[in-house]
Here is the input.
Amino acid sequence: MNWESILPNVFAGDAPHAAEAPMDPPMDNAVFAGFYQRSARPLWAYLARTSGDPALADDLMQESFVRFLCASRPVSLQAEGEVAGRRYLFRIATNLLRDHWRRPQFASIEEIPEEFLAATSSSAQSDSQAVLGPALAQLRPRDRQLLWLAHAEGYSHREIAEITGLASASIRLLLFRARRKIAVLLRQQERNQGLQLNPPSRRQP
Amino acid sequence: MILRPCPCEKEVAQLLAQGGWPAACSPELRAHVTSCRSCGDLVLVQQAFQRARAHSAAAAPLASPGVLWWRAQLRRRQAAVERVGRPILGAQIFALAVNLLLVVVFLAYQARHGLSWLSWLAQLPQSFTLHLEALWPSALADSGMSLLVLIPALATLALLGGVVVYLAADRQ
Here is the structure.
């Protein structure tokens, strides 16, 4: 028995609304699979880097996609485009991350000792993670989100405001401060790494 | 904090986004970036984040989209069933309220018009045999309209009991 045939209006959302607006073709499995293949990796990268926890990123990414599909007014990929769909997906993921950090039973990212994050980062093979990981760990979660959305995903200030729910006018200032802060940290790390690779030679007596 | 964005920042950002830095960049702009803190920060941060994005995206463990699709379908069905169940629960509460109202009306009626049928009920065990003819309309006429009221009332109580039992079982 098909549920959609029994409860068509319930699955379609609000019946009056559906009657007023022209119905977009519903997203099918194949369309979703294509969208997932193109969007899942950037979303995972965003979640993993801003949370510092790959396991949490796995969970939140899956939950984001499920919520995306279950949305009462879903973004139509055909009508609004994949860019809008991805933006909506990042918005869901941002809200999930925020909820996770607010939940009292779990340790907040700000309460995790710095050594834990540093150890996680140093164990990673990639150079970029070893450089960026510790610097990101010293920033506030919101700053990490803003920086990632702006510099890794290339979103505009207006789009970042839409994703994070912050005021569009404040994004510029927040981003400026966060960028200045992380640039200082990155330069500091570069200097430290340079010192480790080329230690200053002591003059022999 | 007063923000004074560098006029070259937009151009540098564009070059970085298009992958044209530093190859497609003029020597003047390159010289500017080494001297301008804002543009230098932009280049440093953007390059670090782009590298990190490429590494993380390559390392992302992806679940099957079919599994997520199936999970979403299950959740939607569950939500739909809950949405459909809500009016049914409302109807049950309404039926319960109507029954309770009937009981209250019946009790009020009985209290106002006297409990004459109680005396008839009290006389029933005193007789040695149960006279079925007592239930005929002629006998009813003796006890007024009380039996006509009693039977619907008992039926209502039985129905009410049934609803209460059903609601309790449904909750469990």
Remarks:
- Residues 68 and 89 of chain A are 6 Å apart (CA to CA).
- The interface with chain B takes residues 3, 7, 10-11, 29, 32-33, 36-37, 40-42, 44-45, 48-49, 58, 62, 65-66, 69-70, 126-129, 131-132, 135, 147-148, 151-154, 172-173, 176-177, 179-180, 182-183, 186-187 of chain A (CB under 8 Å).
- The two ends of chain A are 91 Å apart (CA to CA).
